[in-house]
Amino acid sequence: MSTSNVENLNPNVIRLVTKELLDLQKNPPEGIRVTLNESDVTDIHAVIEGPEETPYEGGSFEVKLILNRNFPQEPPKGFFLTKIFHPNVAQNGEICVNTLKKDWQPNYGIKHILLTIKCLLIVPNPESALNEEAGKLILEQYENYCSRAKLFTEIHARPSLSK
């Protein structure tokens, strides 16, 4: 997971991704901050603020997108680096969302992916759960799901004072 794909990407793709990342830094979508890794644009880090009126409110969630050498023909892999209790996030942080799987379109940009992940915090999809416990709770005991997700947010996703 730590190996760079920069040398395998088409130079035009590298230019487009770099341009989009610079634009995202200058004009970030609400609640999303992107950090540019100038030495490796295939390793994208962002912080997504927990949306209001969700169990994730008040949290800051670091996510990572890894572009493979076939990007944009193939979707990037997405991971939460911040521990989160969510039906569509596996124990290892892998994100399961249709946009990064069967619904992927090569014209989707980084901004679209990050906004989709933020939307997943607002509207989880328990039908395609990677975390079966969270998926079951959200469907059968919604209040317990919210309590557990809030607890994870309070413990793991508090914004650090140094940021």
TrEMBL record:
The active site is at C96. One of its GO terms (molecular function) is ATP binding. Its EC number is 2.3.2.23. The keyword Transcription does not apply. Pathway: Protein modification; protein ubiquitination. GO terms for biological process: anaphase-promoting complex-dependent catabolic process; cell division; exit from mitosis; protein polyubiquitination; ubiquitin-dependent protein catabolic process. Keywords: ATP-binding, Cell cycle, Cell division, Nucleotide-binding, Transferase, Ubl conjugation pathway. It is an enzyme of class 2 (transferase). It catalyses: S-ubiquitinyl-[E1 ubiquitin-activating enzyme]-L-cysteine + [E2 ubiquitin-conjugating enzyme]-L-cysteine = [E1 ubiquitin-activating enzyme]-L-cysteine + S-ubiquitinyl-[E2 ubiquitin-conjugating enzyme]-L-cysteine. Residues 12-158 form the UBC core domain. Gene3D superfamilies: Ubiquitin Conjugating Enzyme (3.10.110.10). It holds the Pfam family UQ_con. PROSITE patterns: UBC_1 (PS00183), UBC_2 (PS50127). GO terms for cellular component: nucleus. It comes from the Eukaryota. Belongs to the ubiquitin-conjugating enzyme family. This is E2 ubiquitin-conjugating enzyme. It comes from Helobdella robusta (Californian leech). The lineage of its organism: Eukaryota, Metazoa, Spiralia, Lophotrochozoa, Annelida. The gene is 20207954.
